[in-house]
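Objective 1.3, modelling of assemblies. Example input:
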Amino acid sequence: MSIWLIMGAAGILTFAIRLSFIAAEGRLTPPSAFRAMLPFVPIAALTALIVPEVLIIDHTLTIADNPRLPAALVATFVAWRWRNATATLIAGFIALALFR
Amino acid sequence: MSSIVFAGSAQFLLAQLVGAGAPALLMVVAIGIINLRHALYSASVAPLLKHLPMRWKALLAYLLTDEAYAAAITPLLEQREQPHAHWILFGAGFALWSGWQLATIAGVLVGAGLPTSLPLDFALPLTFIAIVVPLIADRARLLAAFAAGGIALLLAGLPYKLGLLAGALTGIAVGAGARARGTRRASAAA
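Predicted structure (tokens):
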């Protein structure tokens, strides 16, 4: 089966997933319990992305000998203290270099 | 693929599956599962975009990736009542889309020659840390973060990024539950 057909189908499916709730809004009214969950979506989704990225290297959980862990902790502190994205990035990369 | 699918992890997976000669239907289903978390982003921004005409909703949906969502969500929530808030999502989405297309082209042209030791990919978790930490404003949110990270770590071995989705859903449930419990306790004490 043509690779272009597969890519096209995958593209349409991905687009449909992203559009799902956006298009439905206004036509369907979600229950208030649903709305109560929405504030936690960014925090949960992004943390779920961050933690494995930092702690799993080559499909293995790595705590010792992992410069990303202390670098991430430094970045977390900088983000908490100064709330500045640029400062967090710079501090994180410097920490990574230092801990390597 | 970068224009038709426009989803990094899905593109990697699709490339691998094609190389392995997987059946077509399996490939499409796998892509669907790996991108299922985008439904969460859709649900999260839907209330903020509901006044827009369908062409805008379609455009913003097409551009909706992890990074665009991460970059835009904080200013979007602050601008909640403003009629032009959707431009924030468009700006983030378009900037990332352009960068992704350019990077894809550059990768095709020069990728094989670059040294693999540069830890540039650490920028991803760093950026997300920069966005998430200021969002954690109360105990319920902190619990949500811990639950999400913990489950995602535990289930990281699952295929199709299902561990990620499980982590996100767990975090949302824990956060909402903690919030509900806090409200109930407050009204019981009152």
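The first helix of chain A runs from residue 3 to 24.
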